[in-house]
Amino acid sequence: MLVIDIHTHIIPEHLPDFSAKFGSSGFIRLEHHKPCCARMMKGDTFFREIKDNCWSAEKRMEECDTLNVQMQVLSTIPVMFSYAAKPAHCLEVSRFLNDHIAGIVAKYPRRFFGLGTLPMQDPEMAIAELERCRSIGLAGVQIGSHVNRWNLNQPELFPVFEACSRLDMALFVHPWDMMGQDRMPDYWLPWLVGMPAETSLAICSMLFGGIFERLPNLRVAFAHGGGSFPSTLGRIEHGYHCRPDLVAVDNKVNPRRYAGKFWLDSLVHDKTMLDYIVNLFGADHVALGSDYPFPLGETKPGELIKSMDYPAALKETLLSGAALKWLNKKVVG
Ligand SMILES: [Zn+2]
Predict the structure, then answer these.
(1) Under DSSP, is residue 165 helix (H, G, I), strand (E, B) or coil?
(2) How far away, in angstroms, is 154 Cα from ligand 1 center?
């Protein structure tokens, strides 16, 4: 059975010293302190330790073979977005990362699809880079759940979404820069509480901002099973009914109508929740996503889907059909 993982992260093995180059400390650098291992550092602050499966396409293919995953959709690690940087600096970082992913896709087209990253803080520049991403063979782009002070309904961002739709580029929205982090110093809460809230914020912003309504052909997928959106849709819909003066300001359509108009990945770690989102969105709008190679992801990509009491055809839709529909791609034979 064909298995495509839409949510995996990759970074080049060696990064230029962007902080030195741009005279600003906000950029990630890699310290290769031992073989097959590196520390991601932001200035002198330790961010995360990564292994060679985070940069080596060959190592990834080896692990995928063991895990029975035929294809991965590659995207950068959200900490690389660089939205707070000057647009020109972010563009240079983005181009570097996008060329790296495009190179891997060109080398191994049967194993990888690629998503680019864009300088979203400068929408005109973002559209130009989006066009370039398409020309170098990327299938879409990954963006953050917000862009600095902008939520995704910010009018300045609409032309970028319009360009994604026009250029047939899939859009993957990933939580990052989590809200309320200053109030969450303990228990890894930004990842456990902030991330699901960020994703729901992104979905609600696009939904109530009328993005899905105005761009019905835009294909958007949200990470982590849509975060807290699916489980709070009843509340969101009730809010729409009881306070339309606050909720339905820019879009009059019931939020529930959009279930199944965009995609979610399957990364929910819970059979009941997976079954709920499959029923809510339809199997062809829930695509396997594992967050490979990070520990909060699904260690064996597709294990939860395979464990479900579903017919084989439905499992196949979740494991690859939904991904291909979202990407609007066919597998290279
Ligand atoms: Zn992720």
Answers:
(1) helix
(2) 23
Can you tell me the distance from the alpha carbon of 117 to that of 98, in angstroms, rounded to the nearest whole number? 7
Q: What's residue 333's pLDDT?
A: 66
Cis check: omega of the bond before 293, within 30 degrees of 0: yes
User: Nearest to residue 304, comparing CAs of 233, 245, 225, 229?
Assistant: 225
- The token pair that represents 7 in the structure block: 């949510």
In one-letter notation, the amino acid at residue 236 is: I
What is 4-11+56-327's CATH superfamily? Metal-dependent hydrolases (3.20.20.140)
pLDDT, position 25: 84
pTM: 0.98
User: Parallel, antiparallel, or unpaired: how do β-strands 4-9 and 170-174 relate?
Assistant: unpaired
Report whether 146 contacts 118 (CB < 8 A): no
For the chain, the structural domain boundaries read 4-11+56-327
Q: What single-letter amino acid sits at 32?
A: H
CA 236 to ligand 1 center in whole angstroms:
25
Ligand 1: centre distance to CA 9 (Å): 6
Sites in the chain below the pLDDT cut of 50: none
- Integer angstrom CA distances of residue 261 from 42, 58, 168, 203, 220: 37, 35, 16, 11, 9
Structure tokens at 54: 């985070």
Ligand 1 centroid–CA 87 distance in Å is: 23
Q: Could you read off the pLDDT of 274-318 as tens digits, one per residue?
A: 999 999 999 999 999 999 999 999 999 999 999 999 999 999 999
The answer to whether the CB of 93 falls within 8 A of the CB of 82 is yes
